[in-house]
Design brief:
The protein is α/β, with parallel strands linked by helices and about 425 residues long. The chain is built from 14 helices and twelve strands. Helices cover about 45% and strands about 15% of the residues. A seven-stranded mixed β-sheet has the order 9-8-7-6-10-11-12. Strands 1-2-4-3-5 form a five-stranded mixed β-sheet. Helix 7 links the parallel strand 6 and strand 7 (about 240-245). Helix 1 (about 10-25) packs across helix 14, helix 3 packs across helix 14 (about 400-420) and helix 6 crosses helix 13. The structure holds nicotinamide-adenine-dinucleotide. Nicotinamide-adenine-dinucleotide binds near residues 152, 153, 195 and 227.
Length: about 425
């Protein structure tokens, strides 16, 4: 990878660039633009010193990467995870650019993260870490510049602390600086479940397209956080049997169907979040979950879960990528050869950023919408993007992933060509 500076070079960034290269090749993208779009616009690495509860000071590393802002403010989540690194954040930022463009949102792509295990911190430590991180990335963010949101390991409370830290610095409340925040400070109805609802919307469209009988269909979901748990719940509400769910410790399996509201109730009850303790199904490993016989498999945890090692054993009819980058390049080819219908991440999980956009619009207007309006508008935008991608994929004889990438990249390329190169 001659073009990649070493700091970014890791498997996730290589995956994002390889996908981009394939699409750019297929589109005959202008070589100058190709060089430019491969690399992020701006990357910031910050040190975050935190006073721990025991009185010692510990140093954490944080990142914020803006991949592209040609179409509007950049947008993307903040991840707290021990494996966070610059290359991963840059890859996720690039995917956000294509995702926002594909959905037709007036945003570029960004992502942030802190290398930390959030479950090892007390609430006080987590708050101090978040506030110091927000203060360090303060020059980069703002409602017209770059708007963070939750991702793995962060939630509405973390967004509230970022909103407060930013607002303290400027001297007045700025709800629009983040999305995915609590309703009490300008959050939107439906944001918390939005990514999962979007996954279900596009999966149901895919089932209709493939002629799958909903009554006979089964779903397995890897990851039981924001995306996974809401996907499982809404799938069941839509009448589809959810046979397996998992978190990082392993999964629950019941071929007759799990009772998701009951799983959720028991999962949350002790605050320790252990699926095994719910005792609501047979215990399986995450590897076994990915290899289950099912109609729909939803990876909704971390990236690179389906690789050349297990792709051949994946037995679903539809792969709906709730997570970002769950499938490696080699695995993508194996699944495609097996005839599995893939709803790529930048399409399948775009419900989150679509409703984040609604939240940002509501904050700007100081006028808030009803839950039904949000669900209806989400459905309209995401199913339109699904059908546009499907038509394109059939017309050009490319995979759904290639069609989604080509569509997203083309919109960004058009913006660059219209604006020209500064100076
Ligand atoms: P989360 O932190 O709420 O949940 C993550 C879940 O994954 C947890 O249940 C965790 O136990 C599980 N997990 C972690 N490591 C695992 C492993 N090795 N095997 C199996 N499970 C594992 O995070 P989230 O917000 O639900 O995000 C999940 C994925 O969806 C990420 O790839 C994220 O980038 C993507 N995504 C999230 C949003 C959003 O709105 N939150 C939007 C779009 C995409």
């Amino acid at each position: 990878m001659r073009e990649t500076v070493n700091e970014l070079d890791n498997p996730t960034f290589r995956l994002a660039v390889a996908q981009f290269d394939q699409a750019a090749e297929r589109m005959n993208l202008d070589p100058n633009l190709r060089e430019r779009l491969k690399m992020p616009e701006r990357s910031l690495i910050v040190s975050i010193p935190i006073r721990m509860d025991d009185g010692t000071v510990k140093l954490f590393t944080g990142y914020r990467v803006q991949h592209d802002s040609s179409r509007g403010p950049s947008k993307g989540g903040i991840r707290y995870h021990p494996d966070v690194n610059l290359g991963e954040v840059a890859a996720l930022a690039m995917w956000m650019t294509w995702k926002c463009a594909l959905a037709g949102l007036p945003y570029g792509g960004a992502k942030g993260g802190v290398r930390v295990a959030p479950d090892q911190l007390s609430r006080g430590e987590l708050q101090r870490l978040t506030r110091r991180y927000a203060a360090e990335i303060f020059p980069m963010i703002g409602p017209d510049k770059d708007v963070p949101a939750p991702d793995v390991g962060t939630d509405a409370q973390v967004m509230a602390w970022i909103m407060d830290t930013y607002s303290q610095q400027v001297g007045f409340a700025v709800p629009g600086v983040v999305t995915g925040k609590p309703l009490s400070i300008g959050g939107s109805l439906g944001r918390e479940e939005a990514t999962g609802r979007g996954v279900v919307n596009v999966t149901l469209e895919a089932m209709r397209h493939l002629g799958v009988d909903l009554q006979k269909a089964t779903v397995a979901v890897q990851g039981f956080g924001n995306v996974g748990s809401n996907t499982a719940r809404i799938m069941q509400e839509a009448g589809v049997r959810v046979i397996a769910v998992s978190d990082k410790s392993g999964g629950l399996y019941n071929p007759r169907g799990l009772d998701i509201p009951e799983v959720l109730a028991r999962y949350r009850v002790d605050g320790r979040h252990s699926l095994r303790d719910t005792k609501l199904g047979d215990w399986i490993t995450n590897e076994e979950l990915l290899e289950l016989e099912c109609t729909v498999l939803v990876p909704a945890a971390l990236s690179e879960q389906i690789t050349h090692k297990n792709a051949d054993k994946v037995k679903c009819r539809i792969l709906a990528e709730g997570a970002n980058g769950p499938t490696t390049l080699e695995a993508d080819q194996i699944l495609t050869d097996k005839g599995i219908f893939i709803i790529p991440d930048i399409l399948a999980n775009s419900g989150g950023v679509i409703v984040s956009y609604f939240e940002w619009v509501q904050d700007a207007q100081r006028f808030f919408w009803k839950a039904k309006d949000i669900q209806d508008r989400l459905h309209e935008i995401i199913t339109t993007a699904f059908h546009r991608t499907l038509q394109f994929s059939m017309a050009k004889r490319v995979t759904m992933r290639m069609a989604a990438l080509m569509n997203g990249i083309d919109k960004v390329a058009q913006a660059h060509l219209a604006r020209g190169l500064y100076p």
